[in-house]
Amino acid sequence: MKVLTKEQEEAHYKVTLKGGMKGLALGTAIGLTGLGLASRRYAIIRGLTLPMKSFLITSSSTFCAIVAADRASRSYEFESMPKNLYKDQASRDMAVARENDTTFDKFKQWGRDNRYPIVTASWIASMGVALQLVRNNPYLSKAQKLVQARVYAQGLTLAVLVVTALFEVGDANKGRGRWETVMVVDPNDPEHKHMIEKKIHHEMYPGEDLWKDMVEAEEQKIAARKQQEGAAAAAATKQAKN
């Protein structure tokens, strides 16, 4: 456990307070905007009492302030500990492999990494759009409008799921998943022109392969120590013969 100095505690407090104030301002703006838009559209919102409206706004601002302050605090803690800034070999290899990707390749990779949040967000967005499309239909009841909106939303979500499944099949056919074979610059090439294949491990969380780097570094130290001991023994033997 790291013990913070008084200066670090004060800096941490200032960063957390600043983040909380930003979140408070953002949450208040969101609350006021949302309440204003809802009041224009829904009579039940316009009929709320002033204390209830104040509660809705303060709930939004308080929530955003807490989240922003927590994120600022965690960010300071992360940056203040040097070990958190270390990237293991797998992370460095992946970063090098992604440097040569085109914008379209980066977009596809972003889609692969966020495929499931995209499915969820598309369903929510499609429900909202579908409700707007059917809400003005005078021949449908509220229940029928909801069912119709769900049908539209499920159709779009199904299409997104099909695309996601194609990504999954493509990754399986190309051997992607926990491991991926990419082309990287040969570290032994002084001109950095020769490309070689390298198998990169996709970490489930940052630093998963950190222990491998530690083991490799320790093995290198042991090998170097043995080499020095062997050289010293050979020199001593040669000197004894002379």
UniProtKB/TrEMBL annotation:
<dbReference type="InterPro" id="IPR040153">
    <property type="entry name" value="Rcf2"/>
</dbReference>
<dbReference type="Pfam" id="PF04588">
    <property type="entry name" value="HIG_1_N"/>
</dbReference>
<keyword id="KW-0812">Transmembrane</keyword>
<keyword id="KW-0472">Membrane</keyword>
<feature type="transmembrane region" description="Helical">
    <location>
        <begin position="20"/>
        <end position="38"/>
    </location>
</feature>
<keyword id="KW-1133">Transmembrane helix</keyword>
<protein>
    <recommendedName>
        <fullName>HIG1 domain-containing protein</fullName>
    </recommendedName>
</protein>
<dbReference type="GO" id="GO:0005739">
    <property type="term" value="C:mitochondrion"/>
</dbReference>
<dbReference type="GO" id="GO:0033617">
    <property type="term" value="P:mitochondrial respiratory chain complex IV assembly"/>
</dbReference>
<feature type="domain" description="HIG1">
    <location>
        <begin position="88"/>
        <end position="179"/>
    </location>
</feature>
<dbReference type="InterPro" id="IPR007667">
    <property type="entry name" value="Hypoxia_induced_domain"/>
</dbReference>
